[in-house]
Amino acid sequence: MNNKKIYTIVSSVLFMSASVIAQEKEANLGTETVEVVRAYDATISDAFKIKETPDLEGDTDNKKKEVIYRINSFPVASTFIPEKGKAAEVEKGSQLKAFNNYILFGAGNYTNLNGELFLSGQLDESSYVAGFLSHFSTQGGVSGLLLDDDYSKTEGALIYGGQKQNFGWNAKVGGMYQTANWYGLPLDILDTEITKETLAKINPLHKYNNIYAEAGFEFRNIPFTNLDIHYNHFGDDFSTSENRFWVKPKIKTAFGINVAQLGLVLDYVGTTYKNTGLTTGNMEFTHLNLGVEPSVVLRDEDYSVQLGVGVYYNNGKVAEKTENNIYIYPQVKASYDLVKNIVIAYAGLEGGLKQNSYHSFVEQNPFVSPDLLVAPTDQKYNGYVGMKGKLDHMISYNIKASYTEERDKPLFMLNAWNSVTALKPYQYANSFGVGYYDLRTLNLFGELRFDFEENVSMSIYGEYNNYSTDAEEAWNLPDIKAGADFKFDITDQWFAGVDLYYVGKRKDWYENADLMQSKIVNVKSYADFNLKVGYRPTKNWTVFVKGNNLLNDQYSQWSNFDVQGIQVLGGAMYKFDF
Which residues make Cβ contacts (< 8 Å) with residue 380, sequence separation at least 6? Predict the structure, then answer.
């Protein structure tokens, strides 16, 4: 495979992100991305997309596709959760010599340490092997805390992939070890109900572990076109054990320029909690989802329409009770070229049965308690209409309005304080549970992207949400999110980037059982400003410095969990070939 290359694109996180609480995915501060460009693989990025838009293109041609396998150098969010989000490039690939390997190290205040290693090699003309290892840790240091707030995450993986004439594959095995602390004690019980002796006995450390294996296959010239397999084991130091397994085959055939396709889904999750303090035995939840998704894609030069339906069967076991349910969802979407290659209108009405898991909850919020109810979310429909395109060759945009109805939507809420049951380190109202509610969401979204030159770009996005729910509030969901980033190469050696994002106010629920009081907690809105600067003294070396949370606002993304103030991290990356 002669066209194998690895591009090292230096971006915002060679240097850490902003404060001490997790940032939203839409507010990704960028990643150092290593892209392995191969002739064929099972997943393909659509470079024209700004955000979610319908992908209605049935793949009927037999030309080999250039596919990018991406290893992200994870940005560290305010809560020090590396986020595997989309890369936000600062340094263009054309500006860099391609290398197959890199090593990176960075250090900053709060004793923040970041290290990464990526290695790859070609086994023969049609296959490759790669591996990566990454680590981030901080000793914490948020002012005013009475409990430890250090954090760490280490992960690694081995990847094997390639392509033959009519067959492509990509397999990956990996693992992760993460630590976090339940440090967010509410002030009212600190003042009146928790003694110094009790505080000294609280060990807020929570350790997570994860191992996984996954594979993707894509076939040509036969109706059986795709197969995705994934297994994930997730656990913690409170003897929680969760196994998740899914298989997703796809069958597709063309008739003329149109396509008939059938997607199948088998998705199982089994979660067992031990020693929760809520029960004398184990808490077990299991859910098996089986889905069938037939559809037809009709298209010509100007339009593409997908007409489909999703039929799901769920076998669920919650608290020793078993239920069986069948769900039917619309899966319809369409796009139309209003002005060829310049303006595209799109719309859709889609639903589905979304599998939740303890692992997915921890990825969103590492301060959850190890006793969460696990159940799938019934997304009745997500209806949307939008338009994307280009105002000229330098400016692209995407605007979308959507309305979504969901049943059993999990929302994070503070766990209650009860001195009688406070036996575990997460039972001092310093952790989060989940409640399941019916939720309707009106969402308005817009984004502009400016590519002034090859080495200068800027993007601005914003969204507004209006919620209707059977809960008192849409707990911990913001009404407004907005952000902007500016990236540019100053010279061939110097580059820089700026990120600014805003998250609107949220509502949480707090209950003090001792005082028989409960109340709605207002979680304030916040803005975060980040700056990064890098320098390439040679083609192999890049040095960088990044400042995060430069507004020095120790805001809370989650109730009582304040973030670090100004953070500065400096380091270097060395790119090389063997």
Answer: 329, 351, 405, 406, 407
Residue found under tokens 């709605």: 520
Residue with the bigger pLDDT between 92 and 348: it is 348
- Phi, psi for residue 360 in degrees, rounded to 5: -65, -35
Q: In whole angstroms, what is the distance from residue 331 CA to residue 353 CA?
A: 12
Going 7 to 10 to 14 to 235, the CA torsion angle's sign is negative
**Best-predicted range by mean pLDDT (142-146, 156-160, 454-458, 511-515):** 156-160
Name every residue whose Cβ is closer than 8 Å to that of residue 4 and which is 6 or more positions away in sequence.
36, 37, 38, 122, 128
Query: Rounded CA gap, 126 and 107, in Å?
Result: 39
Q: Bin 123: left if φ > 0, else alpha if -120 < ψ < 50, else beta.
A: alpha
pLDDT, one tens digit per residue, over 327-385 is 999 999 999 999 988 999 999 999 999 999 999 999 999 999 999 999 999 999 999 99
Distance from C-alpha of 113 to C-alpha of 47, rounded to nearest angstrom: 33
Q: Say if CB 248 and CB 228 are below 8 A apart.
A: yes
Closest CA to 100 of 132, 124, 126: 132
| Inter-residue contact 155 to 174 (CB < 8 Å) | yes
**Which residues, 6+ apart, have CB-to-CB distance to 527 below 8 Å?**
500, 501, 502, 551, 553
Give the separation between CA 365 and CA 432, rounded to whole angstroms.
8
If one counts the domains in the chain, the total is 1
pTM score: 0.85
Residue 88: strand, helix, or coil: coil
Q: What is the CATH number of the domain that holds 370?
A: 2.40.170.20
**Domain range enclosing 563:** 5-576
pLDDT at 53: 37
**Residues sharing a CB contact under 8 Å with residue 281, sequence separation 6 or more, in sequence order:** none
Asked whether 499 and 527 are in contact (CB, 8 A), the reply is no
Residue 47 pLDDT > 70:
no
Query: Per this entry, what is the length of the chain?
Result: 578
